[in-house]
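Exercise 3.2. Students should predict the tertiary structure of the chain below and write it as structure tokens, then compare their answer with the key that follows.

Predict this chain's 3D structure.
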Amino acid sequence: MLIWAVLVIINGLAAATSPPQGGQSLLMPQNITEGTPVSLPCRLSGRINWFRGAKQIIGDPRRQMDRHGNLHFSYVDVSDTAVYKCSRASNSKVKLVNPVHLNVIKAAGKVKDAMPKLQYSSGTTHVTLGQDVTQQCIFSGRPVPVVTWYHDDNQITETARVKLSFTSVTIKNMSEEDTGTYRCIGKNTVTSNSHVVNLTLPVQPNAELSTTPAEQNDDTTAGKICIF
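Answer key:
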């Protein structure tokens, strides 16, 4: 029997409480006002997909999934009211977890535009020469921010090796020249906001040891709904 976790809002964040007794199944709606940015966590690993009801979500500029499988809304509309679940396919079976019932409430007045704010970044990534690597920045904001990327202050454009998506840049066959500082800028009609991520090579055996973790990221969505 599937037991839904009950979630309650505490200081703007959803926290899981103990499941109900007696084998009951409950899924409490999370009441969120339209125009609010929301991040939904997924506690699975591997190749993740998200479902809205029974329909798989296809990424668009307003709804983006980070590389840990968490789903981010730049802002929510009333039409986003639904039950959301993340999934991982394994041995021809699909495992659905983390059901969340979003109930988006219409705002009392006109929904105001909002400046871009960072929801997620891939942070500092250690890379190996020749591998493919993706760096990602997801911004909240209304209208949805457009993300542009810079490497050492030069704007990145698509090439045979470099691919751009709504929120990420993917570099194929990494070379030493590709390492360094990358800056993502989220911009909408209100203003712009920027964030810095880094691609670095691993420390050589005869070099000074580094205490930098293998991956640093600004993802704070693990285990909770984040309402920004």
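Discussion points: Residues 1-25, 207-217, 219-223 have pLDDT under 50 and may be disordered. The longest strand covers residues 93-105.
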